[in-house]
Amino acid sequence: MTQTTTVPTKKSECLSMTGYAQARGELHGWAVRVSVKSVNHRFLDLKLRIPEGFDLYELRLRQIVRDRIHRGHVEVTVSVEPGKSAPVQVNREIVQAYLRAAEALRQETKAATDMDVVALLRLPGVITGVTTAVPESEEEQKKLGQSLDSCLREALSKLDDMRRTEGKHLVEELRTRLAKISEDTVKVRELAATLRPAFSRRLDAKLRELLGGTGIDPARLAQEAALLAERSDISEELDRLRSHLQQFGKLLDGAGELGKKLDFLLQEMHREANTMLSKTPGVESEALAITGLALEIKAEIEKLREQVQNIE
Questions:
Q1: Are 210 and 221 in contact (CB under 8 A)?
Q2: In the chain, where does the domain assigned CATH 3.30.230 lie?
């Protein structure tokens, strides 16, 4: 009896294209928040939302994403705000104006005054708030860039964890369907071995009907049955299907960009199933059974293709 195709069961590092993660951080006086959302897409479609005025960091952030994600529709949203430890901005021109006015008043009134710095800071316009614009100095720009890089990498690491978990669930379901196709393929091979006698019986009955009971040459009958069986031989399709199943299982044990390779194999498997259907004519019970199994195989392949669309 033909043995069922064995599907490898090693641990897979398959990544789903669906996930969401975010990271927050405060460094060098800036509070940074990055969120990353990804869904399936044929290629890498990256959309980066970054605050106005921070465009100088866009290229480096895009490259970080490209180094980690290769397929999928990815949305990255970056928020930059002053941190709690950000330096207070003081309007020194207004401070000097207050001091000159205080000195002029002291001279006019001859009053002795002690300057209270805290009271001075409370005066209107002295503290202007913290700016959210990109810092002017190259050193500060570099520090902010490091904060953005760090936060984005953390968000991507969290996203990978989620994608890896989802990928494990996908692989488990793919293996289950792969095993079902393998079992059906074995059944088809066993049934196909019985088709030649079935074709012989079919020809014999048809010829007797046409010839009205006249004797039939057994050698010619065997020859015609052999020709019909040869035209309906699906052994090559079954061999290729088995090979595709084995390759599919090996790919699931690997890592990296699997989705396109898996999808290509499924297209080939779909073609073999269609050929089996077209080469199995007749109403014999064996042929009908093969047709039913081939249809089940096609249905499982379609389900596999739907799930593979979500694998990077």
A1: no
A2: 19-85+136-161
The fold of 164-308 is Butyryl-CoA Dehydrogenase, subunit A; domain 3 (1.20.140)
Give 24-71 pLDDT, tens digit per residue.
Answer: 988 777 789 999 999 999 899 999 999 888 999 999 999 999 999 999
Which pTM was predicted? 0.66
Beta strand pairing status for 44-49 and 30-39?
unpaired
Count of beta carbons in the 10 Å neighbourhood of residue 157 = 12
Q: Are 170 and 17 in contact (CB under 8 A)?
A: no
CA terminus-to-terminus distance, the chain: 38
CB-based contacts of 274: which residues, under 8 Å, 6+ apart?
298
* Domain 19-85+136-161 coded CATH 1.10.260: no
Helix, strand and coil content of the chain, in percent to the nearest 5, comes to 60, 15, 30
